[in-house]
Specification:
346 residues, 19% strand, alpha/beta, 2 domains, 6-stranded parallel sheet, Rossmann fold, 7-stranded parallel sheet, 38% helix
Length: 346
Amino acid sequence: MRVVFRVDASETIGGGHVMRCLALADALRRDGADCHFICRELTGHLLETIGSRGYATHALPMQSAAISHADWRVDAEQTRRVVEGATTDWLVIDHYQLGRDWEQLIRPVVGRILAIDDIGRSHDCHCLLDQNFSNPTHARYADATARGAELLLGPHFALLGYEFAELRERALSRRNGSLRHLLVTMGGADPSNETSKVLAGLRESAHSRLAVDVVVGAANPNRQAVATACARLPAAKLHVQSSRMAELMVTADCAITAGGSTTWERCCMGLPALVTALSADQLPIAESLGAHGAHTFLGWSTSLRPEDYAIALDALSVDRLNAMSKVSAAVCDGQGAARVAARLLH
């Protein structure tokens, strides 16, 4: 089976879309599928990372330095030129700028289409995956269902790397409500540099001497500022484009993080968290899981000050940490990529 992924990463988009597609590709490859990636050469693309994982890559040119992506019609034509060269059993599209109209142009040259979405957009596909916890945006997929699409909804299908499932029991076995080690990660891009704000708040906290792992993506435009902020803390270590996120989550007792796709990795590991929303697409995840008790939702990042992070961290108790760990661990078991791969293959 040949599976082609159309997905991008950049300083603005971040790397979450690529990383979850890589998780699915890994699961498909273990069952013998031949996976290819089509990505535009945006600033901060992850083509080298994808290639280093052993996948064929097809680069689409940057159209202009002034824009972050090509017109969707141009993108569809460029994608068609790549996929028309060989039989494509499934095309996986994970891109907020490419939806139903793009899919309709691609449909004639591929066997089937899997659309990955988070925000309830319109699609014309055979299968639609939204790995988010149940929220009102899921109702917006009624038009895709009317066209015959199968829906895969919820964290049961969350696309995580296999290492999260492998380390899950080890992580859960050490959760006891202690707070000795923090993980700070605001996604791959973090253009507003929320990471440095969090670290400034940590300096004001009663927990300022805790060990801290700080993770940023290779596309993060504020890496030097984050490195400087880490140097001001006694036990902070900076990780750039880490391939050891599962291990870091095993070690951590609590995370301070954005409400993106890292949410499902954290839930798999039963890792308590203080969560903020950096963008509108993160809000449904952050709010719904906060109401469920899987983390503490602090609100929009733009409304938070460094001292707000300090206050929230200092307010954590053993009981609260244990409760968040238990609830979050029940949300996601880390087997979603294998489930989606099985659906596509069989």
